[in-house]
Amino acid sequence: MSGSNPESTTYPFSSHPEPTLSRSSSLMSMDSPSPAENDPSSSASSRSRFRGRGQTWSLNEEVSLCQAWVHISENPAIGTGQNRTGFWKSVHDHWRLIVDNRSPVRSVESLEARWKVIQYEVSKFIGFVEAAKGRSGCNGADEINAARQLFRESTAAAGKPGKEFQFMHCYEYLKECQKFSTRYIQKTQPAVVESVADEVRPTGNKKAKAKQAEEHANKRKADELLEVQQELSKIARQKLEVAQEACELEIMSKDTSTMNPIAKQYFMMRQQQVLDAYMKKQVQSQSVSNGDGGNGDGDAGFDTQ
C-alpha cells in the first residue's frame, strides 16, 4: 500500500456516460476465482497483494471500486446534491452490487481510504505517461515502460530503490474517464455539496471578507501546486529526453546483417523512423533560424509515422 498522502478528493460531474462493463470486463476477469480459492488454506495467499488493517484488497475489488466511483461521481441523476457521507454510501452500495460475491464485507470508510490511494497513484502515473507521449521512435508500450521508470524514480529514497506502480489494472480503466483526462491538476466545481442552506442565507460583512480571504488563500495554494506540478513535469520530460536519446542510439547501433529476416525488417523500420524524426527536427530548427516561424513546411518528403 502506498505511503503517499493523496490530495483531497473532489467529485466532478459531467455528461460523461456511465462506463459499460465491456470497458473493464477483461480487467475483472484477472481476479476471477479459481478452484484453489475453495481451499481455506489458499484463500489468503490468492489475494495477498496489499495488506492493511483488514483483509487484503484483490484486483477485482479495486477495479470494482473504480467502476463504482465513476458511476456515482459522473452521473448527475445520482450524485447531484449529495453530501460527502451520502456520496460514499452510494459508492459503497454500487460497489457491493458489482464486486465478486466472494469479496469480504468492507465499510464505507474502507472504500474511501482505498480510493484515495488509488486516485493519487493513478493520477501520478498518468502524468508520467503524458510526459512520455509524442516522443520519436517510441510506441505505446515504450511510453508505459518510460512512465514506470519515472514512477520508480519519483518514489526512490536516499539509498533505497523506488517502488513499482501497483495499480495498472485501475489505470487501464480510469485513463479514459474525465477525471483523469487532463495532464495538470484543475480546479473543478465540486458536484457533492455539504449544504445548500448557506447559499441562500445572507452573509454579513465579516463572513464575506473571511470567505474572500479563504478563496484567495485557496487560489494561491492551487497556483503553487500547479507550479510545482509543472516543474515536476519539466524534470520528467528532461529525464525522458535523455532516456529517449539512449533508446534511439541503441536502435541506430543495431547490426542488422546477422539478424533473421523478420528482426532485420523490424529494426530497419525503427531506424528509419528515428532518422526521419531527426531530419524533421533539423528542418524545423533551420526554419526557426531563418525566421519563418518553424512551421515545418520544409519537411515535405519525410515520413514521421
From TrEMBL:
Record domain No apical meristem-associated C-terminal: where: 198-273
Biased segments, Low complexity type: 21-47
Pfam families the record matches: NAM-associated
InterPro entries listed in its UniProt record: NAM-associated_C
Stretches the record annotates as Disordered: 1-53, 197-219, 282-305
Annotated source species: Lichtheimia ornata
Protein name stated in the entry: No apical meristem-associated C-terminal domain-containing protein
Biased composition (Polar residues): 1-13
Domain of life: Eukaryota
